[in-house]
Amino acid sequence: MTTQQGRHFLQIPGPSPVPERILRALSMQVIDHRGPEFGALGREVLAGCQTIFKTSGPVVIYPSSGTGAWEAAIVNTLSPGDKVLMVETGHFATLWRKMAGRWGLDVDFLAGDWRHGADPAAIEAKLAEDKPKSIKAVMVVHNETSTGVISRIAEIRKAIDKANHPALLMVDTISSLGSADYRHEEWGVDVTVSCSQKGLMLPPGLGFTAISDKALAASKTNKMPRSYWDWEEMLKPNANGFFPYTPATNLLYGLREAIKILLEEGLDTVFARHQHLAAATRAAVRAWGLEILCLEPAEYSPVLTAILMPQGHDADQFRALVLEKYNMSLGAGLTNLAGKVFRIGHLGECNELTLIGTLGGVEMGLAAAGVPHKAGGVLAAMQALGDLNTAVSQLAA
Ligand code: PLP
């Protein structure tokens, strides 16, 4: 029986469901993007972004997806032929590496197994070997959305400092910003790349780069051609809340609301909620007897969990069945992981009951698809969330 009633469960690791408050904000009338009302909106969202990225420096907002912001990071800071160090954490790091190659960068790509984050010690060793200090940037994906592995950016910063290396540090927070602890300034990141459709709970369509003084200085002398992505063109009108071209006004209304929602809950509470939901998800996976793709507990993603399918079972067939029977979208395995993993997104507006519904759909799907597993994952997740213990102790009282 196909049961498509009720709301769709969009449990991919982004785009994440858009909260009602943001949907309402998005639906307001467009205004003159050169008028005073827009200037106030622009100033408010640009300042709000500084709070979310945890920086006192500029944050540039592009009408783009995250990939555009990647490109902006490259073309504003580097020159053709520059050496950069990147780390193969998964599908998205590999795509960024490909883009860097297309821009004529000389990429040293530290090999990875797609089950670990970027290794600070390996980065330090590479930089220590670079006696002429010719590596211009270290480029790392914070939350590798294809694997559910998070890299330790503060430790990577320390590794760069220990090697006494001047390379810029560029970090992709496309799926971590607003969901996982992230501190652009404190962690000494030079360019933080992000986008709208994950932890910020907006529709796709905005890309961000947060920029350090050092990155801004690099942008004054680097040789990469650019026009639309040029920081200088943006930062001049941004000083008064305006943009050099017609901005995505309605997405900026949404962004203003998203920032309010995040700050009302409190960023630390938001991050703790994500950790809590991720831990409950892992409890369910273990109870099912399935394997979490991430091998390093210190690198478990608070944003999503990638789960390996048992041998002989196809993750895409399983996802198709879950969509058909339970009206829920789960994340696909990408490139190297196609058909081998499925990914549960637990980010953005997700709460305990959303998660339990999601895990219920997965558990029913495993049974319906004949995937070998043990029952009890949802129960384990409930116990992990503390609900069951609380309920039992209340009943006993
Ligand atoms: N980097 C990461 C970590 C991502 O998760 C994604 C998309 O999911 C991208 C880059 C590409 O972003 P976009 O699809 O918004 O261009």
Automatic annotation (TrEMBL):
It catalyses: glyoxylate + L-serine = 3-hydroxypyruvate + glycine. Substrate binds at R343. Its EC number is 2.6.1.45. Residues 47-333 form the Aminotransferase class V domain. InterPro entries: Aminotrans_V_dom (IPR000192), PyrdxlP-dep_Trfase (IPR015424), PyrdxlP-dep_Trfase_major (IPR015421), PyrdxlP-dep_Trfase_small (IPR015422), SP_NH2Trfase/AEP_transaminase (IPR024169). CDD domains: AGAT_like (cd06451). It comes from the Bacteria. GO terms for biological process: glycine biosynthetic process, by transamination of glyoxylate. Its cofactor is pyridoxal 5'-phosphate. Belongs to the class-V pyridoxal-phosphate-dependent aminotransferase family. This is Serine--glyoxylate aminotransferase. It comes from Beijerinckia indica subsp. indica (strain ATCC 9039 / DSM 1715 / NCIMB 8712).
